[in-house]
Amino acid sequence: MEGEIMNNVEAARLIAKGLTSLSMFGSGIGEGYLIGKALEAIGRNPDQTGSIFSKMIIGVAMAESTAIYALVMFFII
Question: Which residue positions does UniProt flag as site: Reversibly protonated during proton transport (predicted)?
Answer without folding.
Answer: 64
